[in-house]
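thread from #wetlab-drylab

HS: before we spend reagent money on co-crystallization trials with flavin-adenine dinucleotide, can we at least see a predicted complex? here's what I'd submit
DV: go for it
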Amino acid sequence: MDRIHHDGVLIVGAGLAGLSAALSAAPRKVLLLTGAPLNQGCSSAWAQGGMAAALSVGDTPELHAADTIAAGAGLVDPVMAALLAREGPAAVRRLAELGAPFDRTAEGGFAQSLEAAHSRPRIARVKGDQAGREIMEAVVRAVLSSRHVEVRAGARLRGLLQDAEGRISGVVVVQNGRPLEITAPAVLLATGGIGGLYGVTTTPAELQGEGLALAALAGAMIGDPEFVQFHPTAIDIGRDPAPLATEALRGEGAKLINTSGHAFMAGYHADAELAPRDVVARAIHAEIAAG
Ligand SMILES: Cc1cc2nc3c(=O)[nH]c(=O)nc-3n(C[C@H](O)[C@H](O)[C@H](O)COP(=O)(O)OP(=O)(O)OC[C@H]3O[C@@H](n4cnc5c(N)ncnc54)[C@H](O)[C@@H]3O)c2cc1C
């Protein structure tokens, strides 16, 4: 087996999480590994509606956190909700500074759309529903022009190396059909979700959770793996991955109807089409099961 040592941070996964971590690690040297070519095989490039953040006049991180907690049916960790809501606006501004062309209001602020479970328009969108592709293009450009980052695409994670104390000391990847061991003083896994394990997914099929599984096998405590988001309006046309009717449609007033033409959501939740996504997904499932 070929072996190399990287004297810096080793990051596996080149979605928005891995790329953002690579940029933040400067001036430390980063080796960024991804199984697919950049901008492919990641959910980040497929995101549509945009990023939820309290950016409008009259909106606040506290209101955003309160909506998040209300949507979570008692399961939301309020400390994490507050943290994400507080850091959201700066995260959007940082991506805009990197060149992501967010839609703007006439006054130059962020144009924001309404989506399910938000009490006000709060989704910063990019060229309508092109958020993922446009944000990723800007961030990939920033990474490729950063001298501290080296990208190795086509390297699929197969194993984690541990030292005698159990600490992670590197990874085993397969590249061009050959196994390769890479050791490094710091290893960060950003391999995304597990959608590819389902019979039908809206994520790229490559996302099969190896990072999560290998971390668990190495003794990491995995937080909340049961929270898997199901897009309520994946389009059922026998394709996998299934195409997605953007979440923004319901915010713009689109109605969900059954085969009798009945707009059924009002029977399931007071907010009808704007109910939390898990409620909408279960209601659609119930309507399908009822014929
Ligand atoms: C169709 C769709 C629409 C969405 N719309 C929105 C939206 O509007 N707003 C929003 O906030 N979120 C949205 N999301 C969710 C959002 O895209 C994800 O939560 C986010 O992009 C996850 O980023 P990530 O970097 O963690 O993972 P990903 O972007 O999936 O990146 C994972 C990376 O790990 C790599 N990888 C995986 N396994 C291995 C392996 N074994 N070896 C090597 N590399 C590996 C992949 O190739 C990829 O580079 C949407 C998701 C989808 C699928």
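DV: The pocket of flavin-adenine dinucleotide is lined by residues 12-18, 33-36, 41-44, 46-51, 131-132, 156-157, 190-192, 202-203, 206-207, 210-211, 244 (CB under 6 Å).
HS: ok that's useful, forwarding to the group
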